[in-house]
Specification:
The protein is of the alpha+beta class and 333 residues long. The chain has helices spanning 3-16, 23-30, 34-46, 76-92, 101-111, 115-127, 142-154, 224-233, 249-253, 292-299, 309-327; strands at residues 51-54, 60-63, 158-163, 169-182, 185-192, 197-202, 206-211, 239-246, 261-265, 279-286, 303-307. The longest helix has 19 residues, at 309-327.
Length: 333
């Protein structure tokens, strides 16, 4: 590609990034004089690309509002980032569940790429392997995700048709605070006006979303991600676990599974015989206890089990198995 054509395309890419660009700025980016910039702009206008000229001291060039170029103009790094993002989003469940949208989007991007770049990206994607299998995901429909996101952004109430875990259907009015993606699922947090309390809902269980008139002001407090993690950690499960662990809440939160444990640092005892490090209370609600002994051992901190007693027996049995394994000697050849 000759340098003038390449610079014209670079000029178009700069204008597509949005905003008003001064002639001096464009000349510096293209490494040409201002007269050449005006000539390149004329080339774009001849191609029916609506470049607007803004006069005055702070004037320059910009694309007409609302105009979008159909072809993509991506650098090698940008194209690789987009395609890898589609692959990662499909495996993690973050992409909407709209048929094969991610596959068709990747195919469209590949079609408009130069042959040289397409072959190089195919080599990357073809040689890429993952250390973990795709997780189970519950991606939402675009018809649910998009209006909810718009309602969160503009602080508008919505009406949702929802199917609970037990199959019960209901229609609720919701003041949505925010959207959260966690462990392959999408959640929305907000005030359930029907129940009169803050709740969270899974998007994949929504049958429909309708924006309602009016607006609301979200309350101060935890951000949506913290609301979801706390909601998951306080959901009803078979076992309620309380353990006191020596360590700060910040240290323990980084080492315990998010969405399962609620950690609260306890007041430090006063006096000269105070512990050198504070203790924290850990509350968990879980379906099974068998995995907790290994988690507690991995903390490598003193702990005290408050409940349930069944967990004490599991920890003691786990410690006995570790001690037995430590005493074993390898068999002689």
């Amino acid at each position: 590609m000759s340098r003038p054509i390449a610079r014209v395309l670079t000029l178009l890419e700069l204008l597509q990034s949005g905003g008003l660009r001064t002639v001096a700025e464009l000349a510096a980016r293209l490494d040409v004089d201002e007269r050449t910039v005006r000539r390149y702009v004329d080339h774009l206008v001849d191609l029916d690309i609506p470049v607007e000229s803004v006069r005055g001291r702070y004037g320059g060039y910009r694309l007409a509002p609302g105009y979008r170029m159909p072809p993509l103009m991506l650098s090698d790094d940008e194209a690789l980032a987009v395609l890898l993002g589609l692959v990662a989003g499909r495996r993690s469940g973050l992409l909407p569940a709209t048929g094969t949208a991610s596959e068709t989007a990747a195919a469209k991007i590949r079609r408009v790429l130069p042959e040289r770049l397409r072959h190089r990206l195919d080599a990357v994607l073809g040689s890429l392997a993952f250390t973990a299998a795709p997780g189970t995901s519950a991606a939402p429909e675009s018809a649910v995700l998009l209006p909810l996101a718009d309602a969160v952004h503009h602080r508008r109430p919505v009406s949702i048709r929802y199917v609970a875990a037990d199959g019960r259907r209901s229609e609720r009015t919701l003041h949505p605070y925010g959207l959260v993606a966690h462990a392959g699922r999408w959640y929305v947090t907000g005030e359930d006006r029907t129940a009169g309390e803050d709740r969270m809902f899974r998007l994949d269980r929504m049958l429909g979303v309708r924006t309602l008139p009016g607006s609301f002001e979200p309350p101060a407090g935890p951000d949506p991600a913290q609301r979801v993690l706390r909601g998951l950690a306080t959901a009803p499960y078979r076992h309620e676990v309380t353990v006191r662990v020596q360590g700060t809440a910040e240290h323990l939160q980084d080492r315990l599974p998010a969405g399962v444990a609620i950690v609260a640092e306890l007041p430090t005892a006063s006096g000269g015989d105070a512990e050198p490090e504070p203790w924290s209370r850990v509350d968990m609600r879980v379906e099974r206890l068998d995995w907790l002994p290994a988690v507690l051992a991995s903390l490598d901190r003193p702990f005290v089990i408050e409940r349930p007693d069944e967990l004490r027996a599991l920890v003691a049995d786990f410690a006995a198995r570790l001690a037995d394994s430590a005493r074993r000697r390898p068999p002689h050849a």
